[in-house]
Design a protein that fits this description.
408 residues, Aspartate Aminotransferase, domain 2, 2 domains, seven-stranded mixed β-sheet, 12 strands, binds pyridoxal-5'-phosphate
Length: 408
């Protein structure tokens, strides 16, 4: 694991544009000509490598970006999609058919939860949700119909870390696929090195990093990716969540600076988390010793990239959280917005936004309290200055006061 460095792998990918450009050329075409009719037939049958047929299947720029993301995750290959959900649904619909069963972490992205909980059961695909690091519960839930274990390496919004090595051992023993959504921890965690079979990202977040597009990818074996792109039976080919070539070109350019950005996001998030904790605030960040998965994450991560850019803070009530977020936005400390991985800090109240698909009782059981604010910490140059300003906002709104300090 120490020998693998994804940033070097990506750096070593050298692409030239059609006219010697320093960026690869965007192919602005949905369909491709053939010199012979026979080659067109062979391409349809999947027997003509390197030929483009139709851009829902493949396009040159999407293959460049897919290749770079396969390097990031150290998998054989990858396939980019129009959104993170496009990647997640394609993977799950490819692996699971009527009668199959999935085991999933209960702390996952709201959209994924809604897909597993509401969308798949009418297709006779059931999911058991559980605490994914309760390995006994995981093993006890496996049935002859179970096809996959699904989790996020660092979960949304509670920042729980999944023990991927243990989960991959369970998967190997029972012949299941381990699917890991690594959106919160690109570069920091390499799920495939820890035994994941399929690694998914919402490119919308850190990887693109400029909050100007949605996008997704799934990384895995050539065989699996080919299955998803099969013209007769491929979930991605037939459901059609195709990324546009112009977007994949811009995401590839942004990917080139990911290693620098992640280090700065992590540095800033750790700085704030440590100080908030010292101030007596209820803060959760995997880089803090007080985080229940601190040691686990340390054992899984590439240290130079840190513990990531996300932290959560419990403001007590939804009203207090809203007041604080509105003030911080007014003071230009960030935006009151969902999503993450932007240059600017983003904050949202999880229970009333990205996790609102999860019913209230279940949110409470998981520990998503009403006042929980998720912060995606930005690339601020002077984080001490940001900290002082945030602290002022917390004092003004009463989120930080002496009572708090003595209670927590
Ligand atoms: C945002 C997100 C998704 C969904 O991705 P989209 O690009 O919005 O479709 C999936 N998983 C995680 C962890 C996310 O944060």
């Amino acid at each position: 694991m120490e020998n693998f460095n994804a940033a070097n792998e990506i750096q070593d990918l050298q692409y030239f544009g059609e006219f010697g450009g320093v960026n690869p050329s965007i192919s602005d075409s949905s369909t491709y000509t053939f010199l012979s009719a026979k080659t067109m037939f062979d391409t349809f049958e999947g027997n003509a490598d390197g030929c483009y047929l139709y851009s829902r299947h493949s396009s040159p720029m999407n293959l460049y970006l897919s290749q770079a993301l396969a390097k990031l995750e150290n998998t054989e290959t990858a396939n980019v999609t129009a959104s993170g959900m496009g990647a997640i649904t394609s993977v799950l619909m490819q692996l699971c058919k009527s009668g199959d069963h999935i085991i999933s972490s209960r702390t996952i992205y709201g959209g994924t939860y809604a897909f597993l909980k509401n969308f798949l059961p009418p297709f006779n695909i059931e999911t058991t949700f559980l605490d994914i690091n309760n390995f006994e519960a995981v093993e006890n839930s496996i049935t002859p119909h179970t096809k996959a274990i699904y989790c996020e390496s660092v979960s949304n919004p509670l920042l729980e870390v999944a023990d991927l090595k243990k989960l991959s051992e369970i998967c190997k023993k029972h012949n299941l696929k381990l699917i890991v959504d690594n959106t919160f921890s690109p570069l920091s965690i390499s799920p495939a090195l820890l035994g994941a079979d399929i690694v998914i990202h919402s490119l919308t977040k850190f990887i693109n990093g400029s909050s100007d597009t949605v996008g997704g990818v799934y990384c895995g074996t050539q065989e699996f990716i080919n299955d998803t792109k099969n013209v007769n039976s491929g979930a991605c080919m037939l459901l059609g969540p195709t990324m546009d070539s112009f977007r994949s070109a811009s995401i590839l350019k942004n990917l080139r600076t990911l290693h620098i950005r992640i280090k700065q996001h992590s540095h800033n998030a750790l700085y704030l988390a440590e100080r908030f904790e010292r101030d007596g605030l209820r803060v959760s960040y995997p880089g803090l010793q007080s985080h229940k998965n601190h040691e686990l994450m340390k054992s899984m991560m590439h240290e130079e990239y840190g513990f990531g850019g996300l932290l959560t803070l419990d403001a007590g009530t939804t009203d207090k959280a809203n007041e604080l977020m509105e003030l911080m936005q007014q003071e230009n400390l960030g935006y009151l917005a969902v999503s993450l991985g932007f240059y600017k800090t983003l904050f949202s109240c999880s229970g009333s936004s990205t996790s609102s698909e999860i019913p209230e009782e279940e949110r409470a059981e998981m520990g998503i309290s009403d006042g929980l604010i998720r912060f995606s910490i930005g690339l601020d140059h002077d984080i001490e200055r940001t900290y002082q300003k945030m602290k002022e906002c917390m004092k003004k709104t009463g989120v930080l006061n002496h009572e708090n300090v003595s209670i927590y």
